[in-house]
TrEMBL record:
<dbReference type="Pfam" id="PF06925">
    <property type="entry name" value="MGDG_synth"/>
</dbReference>
<protein>
    <submittedName>
        <fullName>UDP-glucuronosyltransferase</fullName>
    </submittedName>
</protein>
<dbReference type="GO" id="GO:0016758">
    <property type="term" value="F:hexosyltransferase activity"/>
</dbReference>
<keyword id="KW-0328">Glycosyltransferase</keyword>
<dbReference type="InterPro" id="IPR009695">
    <property type="entry name" value="Diacylglyc_glucosyltr_N"/>
</dbReference>
<keyword id="KW-0808">Transferase</keyword>
<comment type="similarity">
    <text>Belongs to the glycosyltransferase 28 family.</text>
</comment>
<dbReference type="InterPro" id="IPR050519">
    <property type="entry name" value="Glycosyltransf_28_UgtP"/>
</dbReference>
<dbReference type="GO" id="GO:0016020">
    <property type="term" value="C:membrane"/>
</dbReference>
<feature type="domain" description="Glycosyl transferase family 28 C-terminal">
    <location>
        <begin position="229"/>
        <end position="328"/>
    </location>
</feature>
<dbReference type="InterPro" id="IPR007235">
    <property type="entry name" value="Glyco_trans_28_C"/>
</dbReference>
<dbReference type="GO" id="GO:0009247">
    <property type="term" value="P:glycolipid biosynthetic process"/>
</dbReference>
<dbReference type="Pfam" id="PF04101">
    <property type="entry name" value="Glyco_tran_28_C"/>
</dbReference>
<feature type="domain" description="Diacylglycerol glucosyltransferase N-terminal">
    <location>
        <begin position="17"/>
        <end position="181"/>
    </location>
</feature>
Length: 370
């Protein structure tokens, strides 16, 4: 019997979209090894010269002019992408995308970014018979996600469902599944083994993430956290940003036995399991991973638009707070040093997580279409 084939399409504008595609791919194969999956960042795959230039320009805009990103996000928030843009994308990608689909011959296509979502929807408008599922990777629903040809939307929350319905999407097309995360986040690591692996101490620990785009060192509150280094273990994760890693390592404030500075790692799930607090940019994937671990979160410098909406959602859920000043740092760091209070909070967050999130749900929803 031939394997069922799933094509997952994303783009590299921020890592969360592609992470979600890989998470779903791994989840599908974890539950059913007979499924074959292929993850592609469509633009980078079809145009490996131009796509990185566009993505790099976007990153620079996010870093240097975040208000511009917010204006762009809100300018077309309530309405689907116009037909002119859709037609332009169709003409640009039609032939190559059709060839990819013919070669891979998937039973279903899953999109985790609006651009390939629009391209596949346009192909379906022109007769492509393959079901299209759309995974919205934030806790908000921008108009660019909306296309009549989508067979089902897999969304993070009831809030997103309501916003899609406000934009004219039929309720029966929307399933609240949660954002998919990699199977390794589905289980709890052995804390002693993780501490030994990373040479960590058994003490109140804070994981600080989000420096991959050079944003981490610019926030004074993140630097202020080092004043707690005598009795708090701080793990700064800067991703692939080697320049940022070297900058922090050269800064005397970060030179302490209780401070760890690490680059890219595939073991974020393990680090979360030994931490008491997560400090992060409020990207949809990272927030969902924190949710899966029932971790309290502090959010800093949300990109105007979807990250602001992510931030608002988790604060309203009781999962965290906005990192607005040094007083916020002191309040939360004192909390994680109070064993009784932090234990009560973690139990409450576990209850809320279990009410609102099941990491299997998105995978199961896709399997229903195979």
């Amino acid at each position: 019997m031939s394997k069922k084939r799933v094509l997952l399409l994303s783009e590299g504008f921020g890592s969360g979209h592609t992470q979600a595609a890989h998470a779903l791919s791994e989840g599908l194969k974890h539950i059913n090894p007979d499924i074959s999956t292929k993850v592609l960042e469509l633009g980078s795959f079809l145009n490996p010269v131009m796509a990185p230039l566009i993505i790099n320009a976007y990153r620079k805009t996010v870093s240097k002019q975040p208000k511009v990103v917010g204006m762009m996000y809100r300018s077309n928030y309530r309405k689907p992408t116009n037909r002119i843009t859709k037609s332009a994308l169709h003409r640009l990608f039609y032939t190559q995308t059709t060839k990819v689909i013919e070669r891979l011959n998937p039973q279903i296509i899953v999109c985790t970014h609006p651009v390939p979502n629009m391209i596949i929807a346009k192909l379906k408008e022109h007769g492509l018979p393959i079901p299209l599922l759309t995974v919205i990777t934030d806790y908000d629903a921008h108009g660019s996600w909306v296309n009549e040809e989508i067979n089902q939307y897999l969304v993070s929350s009831d809030v997103v469902k309501d916003r899609l319905m406000d934009k004219g999407v039929a309720e029966h097309k929307i399933a609240v599944t949660g954002i998919p995360i990699r199977p390794k986040f589905w289980k709890i690591s052995n804390k002693e083994e993780v501490r030994a692996k990373f040479n960590l101490k058994d003490m109140p620990t804070v994981l600080i993430m989000g420096g991959g785009w050079g944003l981490l060192h610019e926030d004074s509150a993140l630097t202020y956290m080092t004043t707690w280094r005598a009795n708090t273990q701080l793990i700064y994760c800067v991703g692939t940003n080697l320049e940022m890693k070297e900058k922090l390592e050269a800064d005397p404030l970060f030179n302490h036995p209780n401070i760890r500075i690490i680059g890219f790692t595939n073991q974020i799930n393990e680090l979360m399991d030994v931490c008491d607090l997560l400090v992060t940019k409020p990207g949809g994937m990272t927030c969902t991973e924190g949710l899966s671990k029932a971790l309290p979160m502090l959010f800093y410098e949300p990109i105007p638009g979807q990250e602001e909406e992510n931030c608002e959602y988790f604060i309203n859920m009781g999962f965290g707070d906005m990192l607005s000043d040094n007083d916020t740092v002191d309040r939360w760091f004192k909390l994680i040093h109070d064993e009784e209070k932090i234990s009560q909070l973690r139990k409450l967050l576990v209850q809320k997580r279990d009410m609102h999130y099941d990491p299997y749900n998105c995978v199961k929803a896709v399997l229903q279409h195979l």
